[in-house]
Amino acid sequence: MTSPVQAGPSLSGGGPTPSLTEHELHVLNLIALGHTHEQIAQQLFMTPKGVTPTVNRALRKLGANNAPHAVFLAVQAGLLDPRRRHGDHAGFAAHRYRGEEPCEACWEGERAYRRERRAARRAAKSAAA
Ligand SMILES: [Zn+2]
Fold this sequence. Notes:
The protein is mainly alpha-helical. Helix content is about 60%, strand content about 0%. Helix 1 (about 20-30) packs across helix 3 (about 50-60), helix 2 packs across helix 3 (about 50-60) and helix 3 crosses helix 4 (about 65-75). It is elongated. The site of zinc ion (ZN) has 7 residues, from helix 5 and helix 6.
């Protein structure tokens, strides 16, 4: 160890792009957004216990040591866009804009959004009447 600055393993990337499932990426994206395992479980309709194996699978595929490292590597590999939101109307619209089928979390957020809009319209109508 002569070099004073040692980059950690796999920080430079350059290997083949790991193939993560849509689900694994989604979990990583929620981790990147600061969600706890419990919140992730709620959003993706899983049990909190089910989140851990998914995270571990993603870590293995990415060669990451922990979740933040996995997020970093996934962003670096272009697999993850931390600026992209999921789970609400904007996320739903972004999927549609890209010609994708919206993910479960975004569908759920969109349904809630539409319910709210309907309720607001009804409230406005009854206020006018
Ligand atoms: Zn989504």
